[in-house]
Amino acid sequence: MMQRNDLLAKTPITLTDEQSAVPAVGNKVLRNTYLLLSMTLLFSALTAGVAMALNAPPLHWLITLGGYFGLLFVVTRLRDSVWGLAAVFALTGFLGYTLGPILNFYLSLPNGSQVVMTALAGTGAIFLALSGYAVVSRKDFSFMGSFLMVGVLVAFLAGLGAMLFSIPALSLAVSAMFILLMSGMILWQTSEIIHGGETNYIMATVSLYITIFNLFISLLQILGVFSGDD
After folding, report:
1. Start-to-end C-alpha separation, the chain
2. Which end of the chain has fewer CB atoms < 10 Å from its terminal CB, N or C?
3. How wide is the angle at C-alpha 172 spanned by C-alphas 168 and 177, nearest 5°?
4. In the 8-state DSSP scheme, what is residue 173?
C-alpha cells in the first residue's frame, strides 16, 4: 500500500490537450479581437467625422434600428467568412455615421466640447480598467450572462418608451442603467473570450464595439444633463 501511495505521489498531474489548449486559443482570439476592435473604432471615428463635416441630419430612429439589426444579422451570417470582416466595418461605419449628428448637437452647446471629451475619456477609462481586470485576474464572469441579457432587454424597452412618450426622467434612468450594464458586459465578454466561451473574434469584436458605443452614448447623455446642456 505504501509503495502504491509513493507512486501516486510521484506521478505528475497533467492537463489534457483540450484543457491546455483553451488558454492559448483564448489569448489568440483576444489579440485578434483587440486588433480588429481598434481598427473598427478608428473607422467609425472616421465616418462620424464625415457626418459631422457634412452636417448630416440625425437618422430616424426606425432607420437606425433597421440598419443596426440588419447589418448585425449580416455579420452573424458571415462570421466564419472573410466577408464577415467587410460586414463588421459596414456595421461599425454605419453606427459611427449615426454618431456624427449627436456629436454635432453636443458640440453646439455651451461646454459641449468638454462634455464630449469627458465622455470619451470616461468610456476609454472604464473599458481599459474592466477589460484589463478581467484579463489579469482570469476570473470567470460567465454567471453574469443571463442577468445582463435580461437587463439590456429591459433597458432597451424602457429607452424606447422614454423616447416615444418623451419622458426625460426615464431617459436619464435608462442611461444610468446602460452605464452599469455595459460595464458588466465588458467583464463578461472579455471573460468569455479568455475562457473559450467565444472563439470567433469577429463576433467578439462586434460585441465589445456595441458595448463601447452604448457606454459612450450613455455617458454623453448623463454628462449633458448634469452640465445643464440637455
Report:
1. 78
2. N
3. 145
4. H
